[in-house]
Amino acid sequence: MGMGFSRDAVAKAIEENGEGNLNAILDSLTQAASSSASPSNSQLVSNFMGMEFSRDAVAKAIEENGNKRGKIIMQNFISNIPSL
After folding, report:
1. What's the superkingdom here (predicted)?
2. C-beta of residue 56 within 8 angstroms of C-beta of residue 26
3. Most buried among 42, 48, 76, 81, using CB within 10 Å?
């Protein structure tokens, strides 16, 4: 709900995956959001996942920055890459 998911969607994801399985719940929520998302949001998720970022990381970045701010999301990902 704090991530923009409806109360019903969260309840359904918990029912399907169990209360203790946070990763599965988040996967269910983000997959449902991706399938019903606007083309731009779905494309943004696909683009970042194609660059090897996890679905969880992409969902969190979109939550924090909005789905219209791909450049800022990319800058945040890059700034968090550990030094070699």
Report:
1. Eukaryota
2. yes
3. 48
